[in-house]
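idk why but the lab printer keeps eating my pages so im just putting this in chat instead. protein + S-adenosylmethionine:
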Amino acid sequence: MVKNIIYGDYSIPYVGSKRGIATALMKEMLKYKPNATIFIDLFGGGGAMSFKALCYDFKKVIYNELDTQVYKAMNYVIECVNGEHKSKYGIFPENFYRGINRDEWEKLNINNPADWLLKTINSFGTNINKGYLYSHEIEQNKIDLENYCINPTEENYHKLELIFQDNENLKMIKLSQTPTERRLFMKILSKTSKKNYLQNLQSLESLQRLERLQRLQRLQRFNNSYECIDLSKYNDDEVIIYCDIPYNTPSTKKLYVGEFDYEEFYEWAIKNDKAIFISEYNMPACFTKIFEIKKTSLLGNHKIITECLFCNKKIDKAGQLSLF
Ligand SMILES: C[S@@+](CC[C@H](N)C(=O)[O-])C[C@H]1O[C@@H](n2cnc3c(N)ncnc32)[C@H](O)[C@@H]1O
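predcted complex ->
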């Protein structure tokens, strides 16, 4: 079985990301495919499952995504991980590390992958269509907070004093040496403060974490619809094919590019001679539910939801996938 060689969860902040449950899903699929050496993520999005697969020693990882803007953003992130755009603060250019205000956010050009990514991490629920991340009321405070993390001058410290007026522990932040340490400290301060100052710091952290992956040669990328990826050249045993489709509920199916044809997808999956793993809430009865896990929805409402993993094949008495 492939080994887990890098620990942690990695992804682009993305609506519908599997980041929190990627390890659980991977372990489950590996139970049925212990000899797999190739991982195919047909609905790649923010890449949580592709990055998770890169943490294991799969020989090859394939990321596919239909939305060209998302696909280009993924390419840009890979360039960053490979050290092509680094700044003094880390693998991303400087403007990723400071606060972006509403006017700057409006002006970002989403056809440019770097701007798309910056706009996404500064959007409510990491969804560009939901608007700028902060309400007018807290916008300036958030920006001051982030700017201190990056640039801890006396002038910027004074702005923090105005935000955390009554917090005795604030001066401790001066002892922290790096932006990451200051962010961590800020989190602790925010927890004891009345307002929620955490959201954007978290998006940025999840991007920064990608730094640990380093050179990503094993990742192949495609910008296509799922059915165009040629699966015929793989043996069923050697490959895990994972589909994180847009979930079929009124609110989730509108989150992504175009309109998803569910009937066509079900037919494609059922007719496929290989095992296909699918994340969804519900699937037609001809699919087998093999796993479920509870998680907190990140779509703005923080509800507890049950995520399920289905397969197009039946499970036999020995707990193996029966392909015919
Ligand atoms: C639920 S999201 C995937 C999230 C991803 N697993 C992650 O963790 O970030 C579904 C993705 O499928 C993409 N998509 C929609 N229709 C597609 C198609 N026909 N082929 C491939 N990707 C498609 C959407 O653009 C969206 O990024």
